[in-house]
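Regression test case RT-17, inverse folding.

Input:
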């Protein structure tokens, strides 16, 4: 029986890295019946909507999606398709493992970086509640709830307990946002009490950024509200070779959508040079989620072997290969 999986190629480099990833997944031998649906610019052109109901209908059937990035205009235009999808499907965990790939030359290549980000995915300043109070005075509402904070903290601790992780750090700005980030911290502390074997600490977000750059190897599991989680994810991607590398998963109780940390990269879209590693690694998380452990490990080993050899790397990681050459190299290893 083939797995039914919703495929959302997305905008910019999305279709390029999605095609590469579909090929890599198929090369693992796992049978997949992809349900392709469009979101973003292609969807708007075809249906008049950036996020058509067909996307939700497909995910309601399959419960699992592989998604390329979808662009959002800056300072104007339609609201984020990504945020809308995460909120409506209640994909409350954004899980982003950040690990150094073997052989990859980065500024931090000599450090054993292996950390995991748990970013709250449904609220905070992403509530989208903004208004102009009077001319030239604008308010954006930061919404933090006990429900969302408890469940992201629980997800981080439960994962740590299951995977043998030793330390969880909650990242906040509760010195300034005493009520909202204060509530987030109280929830993290309450959950931490139920996990006495896991060390719990807290860092103010600005200090956390400095510590992450100075000593990234000391971090284990990070739990953050939505906005800090977004920013710190890109910072951490920079530690291990950039946005072309780091995968992610949006997880809810009934559905999971796997996507890279990176965006639609309009500066390199259509050139055939995007690095598909981040989406391939997201697909590896997807295969593990489906219970296809051997295929997940096989795909990861194939990616690692290509990096160890260093002959077919894309330009963002110091090589000269295009998306296709890199993909062929991964498939050959599989
Ligand atoms: P970006 O992640 O698209 O690109 C930042 C830089 O990283 C660019 O120089 C880009 O070329 C490079 N890069 C990113 N992915 C790469 C890859 N796979 N291989 C090689 N290089 C890669 O961030 P941005 O430019 O700030 O955002 C562009 C658009 O993407 C915006 O509209 C934004 O809203 C959207 N976005 C979407 C998502 C998502 O769909 N989940 C996430 C982030 C940003």
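Golden output:
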């Amino acid at each position: 029986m083939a797995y039914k999986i919703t495929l959302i190629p997305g905008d910019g480099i999305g279709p390029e890295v999605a095609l590469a990833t579909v090929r890599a997944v198929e090369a693992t031998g796992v049978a997949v019946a992809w349900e392709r649906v469009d979101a973003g610019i292609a969807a708007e052109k075809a249906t008049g909507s950036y996020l058509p109901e067909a996307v939700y209908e497909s995910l309601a059937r399959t419960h699992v999606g592989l998604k390329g990035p979808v662009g959002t205009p800056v300072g104007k235009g339609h609201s984020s398709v990504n945020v809308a999808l995460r909120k409506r499907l209640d994909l409350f965990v954004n899980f982003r493992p950040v690990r150094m790939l073997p052989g990859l030359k980065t500024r931090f290549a000599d450090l054993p970086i292996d950390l995991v980000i748990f970013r709250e995915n449904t609220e905070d300043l992403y509530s989208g509640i903004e208004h102009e109070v009077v001319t030239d005075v604008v308010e954006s509402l930061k919404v933090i709830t006990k429900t969302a904070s408890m469940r992201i903290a629980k997800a981080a601790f439960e994962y740590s307990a299951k995977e043998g992780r030793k330390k969880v750090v909650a990242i906040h700005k509760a010195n300034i946002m005493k009520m909202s980030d204060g509530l987030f911290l109280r929830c993290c502390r309450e959950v931490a009490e139920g996990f006495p074997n896991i060390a719990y600490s807290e860092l103010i977000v600005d200090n956390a950024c400095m510590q992450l750059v100075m000593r990234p190897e000391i971090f284990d599991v990070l739990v953050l509200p939505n906005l800090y989680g977004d920013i710190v994810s890109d910072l951490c991607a920079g530690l291990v070779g950039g946005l072309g590398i780091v995968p992610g998963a949006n997880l809810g109780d009934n559905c999971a959508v796997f996507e890279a940390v990176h965006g639609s990269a309009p500066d390199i879209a259509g050139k055939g040079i995007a690095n598909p590693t981040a989406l391939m690694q997201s697909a590896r998380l997807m295969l593990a989620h489906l219970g296809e452990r051997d295929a997940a490990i096989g795909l990861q080993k194939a990616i690692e072997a290509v990096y160890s050899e260093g002959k077919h790397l894309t330009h963002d990681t110091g090589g000269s290969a295009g998306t296709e050459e890199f993909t062929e190299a991964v498939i050959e290893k599989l």
